[in-house]
Amino acid sequence: MMAAGPAFAPLKWEVGQNNMGGYKGMLLFVPFNAPETVPTVPDPSKATSNEELITAAGSFTFPAEGTYKQPIYLYSTEATVEYKAEQQGEADGISYKCTLGFFFPGNTPGMHAFNALIKNRILYL
Fold it and tell me: What DSSP designation does 61 have?
């Protein structure tokens, strides 16, 4: 007799198909005031499918005279990047505390500069 429960299967979806097993752990940051345009997030009340609901349209563009010309890449040790959306609050669980963690090996001037850049800043991840 088999026990009832969820069906388990290998995570072998194509990249971009919820394959978190294939997530490479790359981090890109964009300071909130750096881009000229940003991708637009769909209006949940107008989305007709899950794909529309989670797909932003457009891309980041940066002004020619701006400080940043592209997103900031931050190296992180392989398999140490984690994004969590933990439920908090009432039992209905509709409130989430989102956190991002990663490990950067060493103590370099570049990492200290990055720390100074992101403290108390609004960022796109």
Answer: B
**Checking DSSP bridges between strand 72-74 and strand 27-31, what pairing results, if any?**
antiparallel
Q: What is the pLDDT of residues 22-75, one digit of tens each?
A: 445 678 889 999 999 999 988 888 888 888 888 888 999 999 999 999 998 888
Distance of CA 3 to the CA centre of its chain: 36
Of 6, 4, 35, 15, the C-alpha closest to 122 is 35
Q: Is the dihedral of CA 58, 59, 62, 64 positive or negative?
A: negative
Q: For residues 11-27, b (16+ Cβ closer than 10 Å) or e, as one string? A: eeeeeeeeeeeeeeeeb
Cα first-last separation, the chain: 47
- CB-CB neighbours of 93 under 10 Å: 10
